[in-house]
Design brief:
This protein has about 300 residues and is mostly helical. Helix content is about 55%, strand content about 0%. Strands 1-2 form a two-stranded antiparallel ribbon.
């Protein structure tokens, strides 16, 4: 796939890992770059971005926005996924020394992630989801939201902690926040008796994190159907990538999606080459081989 190689070449040679070409490095694009390069057979190149993430890791194990802004720490989840992805794909003499350092950074990040949490809110009549469930938040001191919870669950599953009580509560929270007819908003369900509309990107992120979980309420199945009928050749890059990740993690990857990814990559590049979106597309092209999909048999025990 020449479009994937072109993106990987651009990411590899930029060595800046910013949100756009020529901008200062940030944790989210660096983590996605490390994962994309490593997963496509360029682990040594991905190691550069992974090492930069280690450089900005705080003493408490968290990873902030960039070198200057140390919080919020939700990017820690992506950093853990990047460190794990690169570590398992390194080869030769560098695998031992670099791999040990990457796993130590991952362990420290995991320790922080298990302490970090969203704020519990007393049940009330205005918000109808279970506000007492605790997951993870975008910003310290605020309520738990879906995407940071899903990313934290993915990171902890990659560390072999699927059975940990924090992961179990995070899974319960995500299923509780799925809308009755499928899909999800960014964290709320029914507000002032109005059911909110689903959005594709958070639905895909949550489905990816719910891989292997029991579908007791049927809301997972309804969400899969919502994503299946929502993705297509015109879907924007992040929504398409996460939607396909969610479907792939449940064995529902649609036929013809490779052409959707290529078309989206071309549109995104034409609009200014947003590196995180482009790397997400290359990761989605891997299907179940993407490091963002943590299948039960792939979970680390380190």
């Amino acid at each position: 796939m020449s479009w994937i190689s072109a993106i990987l070449d651009q990411v590899e040679h930029s060595e800046a890992w910013g949100f756009r070409a020529g901008t200062a490095p940030s944790a989210e694009p660096a983590a996605l770059a490390a994962m994309a390069l490593a997963a496509h057979g360029r682990a040594d190149e991905g190691l550069l971005a992974a090492r930069w993430l280690m450089q900005i890791q705080a003493q408490d194990g968290s990873v902030g926005l960039n070198e200057r802004v140390s919080s919020p720490g939700w990017m820690t989840s992506l950093a853990i996924l990047a460190w794990e992805s690169v570590a398992v794909r390194l080869a030769g003499e560098v695998a031992k020394s670099a791999g040990d350092k990457l796993r130590e950074a991952s362990r420290r990040g995991t320790d922080w992630l298990l302490i970090a949490s969203g704020e519990r809110v007393e049940a009330n009549a205005v918000i109808q989801h279970d506000t007492t469930l605790v997951g993870w938040s975008w910003v310290d001191g605020t309520h738990s939201w879906l995407e940071p919870t899903a990313l934290a669950v993915l990171a902890l599953k990659s560390r072999g902690l699927s059975g940990h009580e924090r992961v179990r509560e995070g899974v319960k929270l995500m299923i509780n926040r799925l809308l009755p007819d499928g899909g999800c908003n960014y964290g709320n369900t029914v507000v002032l008796e109005n059911t909110l509309r689903p959005h594709l990107q958070p639905s895909g992120v949550v489905l990816t994190a719910l891989v292997g979980e029991e579908n007791v309420s049927e809301r997972i199945e309804k969400t899969l159907r919502y994503v299946e009928r929502s993705v297509g050749v015109e879907t924007t890059a992040s929504s398409l990538a996460w939607g396909l990740h969610g479907l792939a993690s449940h064995g529902r990857l649609p036929n013809g999606c490779e052409s959707w990814l290529e078309a989206s990559a071309k549109r995104t590049a034409k609009r200014g080459a947003s590196l995180p979106r482009l790397t997400l597309l290359t990761l989605a092209a891997l299907g179940t081989e993407s490091p963002l999909i943590i299948l039960p048999q792939q979970r680390s025990v380190t």
